[in-house]
Predict the structure.
Amino acid sequence: MSSVLVYHTISSPLEPLVADADISPEKFERHLQWLARWRRVVPLDETLRDPRRNAVALTFDDGYRDNLTVALPLLEKYQLPMTIFVTAGFLGREPYLSESELQELSRHPLVTVGAHGLWHRHFNLLSTDEARHELIESRHRLAEITGKPVNLLAWPFGECNEQLEQLSAECGYQASWSVWKGNNGLHSLRRVPLGRRDDLARFVIKSSGLYALTKARWHRFNQKDETQNLKPGGAKQLVADN
Ligand SMILES: [Zn+2]
């Protein structure tokens, strides 16, 4: 069974980000080393073609600059492909990519660019028109900047529901990823979030397809409100996808 992993910033901030969203370059490299040796890492869209194959795909949310400056050189070293889900409205702000940095990233043969909303809003709280605007406009802006079609989506905060899943298909996305929410259909595909606590032992367990299956069942039974840890204000809340 395939496993799709989510990272955010590859850095070591003095104060940890909420939802364990940062991971040090050293820890991240240990993940890559292990994957390169023991697993088949494929571009994200390959997991759509045959999800039963025992592959891993790497994704990065929000569009942090260090995905270009820190993650990409390491991915090059191990020749592992990545998909970056960029929040279009954040481009040019600190600590995110600028438009020209996104262009540079998008030209790299190991990189696929996907959308992550325009302003990283809670989609569950938006009207249908607002959600549609976010989905269409973000995709359009990213395609304009990169000169390539943008067909993949990751839901900000992993939030989706049946209506949103349908909307994402209507807005032309080929597939969409949540974290644990949704039914793991084509527009609410599961991903496993990783962060600063994930040393190699935890990573080995979390990157197995079985972990995603078990954890998703646990979330469904507990109906946990995964947004409960969010605090108002500040950029830190923007990364709380898990
Ligand atoms: Zn996000």
Q: What stands out?
A: The longest strand covers residues 55-62. The chain has one domain: 3-239. Residues 128-146 form the longest helix (19 residues). Confidence is low (pLDDT under 50) at residues 229-242.
